[in-house]
Amino acid sequence: LTPPAALVTSDGYERGKPAPDAFLLAAERLGVEPVGCLVLEDAPAGVEAGKAAGMTVWAVRTTTPRSALEEAGADRVFDGLPALLAARTSTAAG
To answer: Phi then psi for 13, rounded to 5 degrees?
Structure first.
């Protein structure tokens, strides 16, 4: 596997989710503005962190109910990765 362009691990920031620190650090390391980032999450704390960072958040329903992800502020909620990937592909093509 090709290593990612930027890697953020828990030892690189002080506050964990729902604080936005990890997502903001990732945007900084990638050299992009947070508003141009898309966060993929499966937990309310991650959704809250992404939104607090000023990013668009798409959530995947795994063990968390759709309502909890929506209440956390997810911009879109998908029932699984295949649905999310299909939406991303159609968005990129359109």
So the answer is: -150, 160
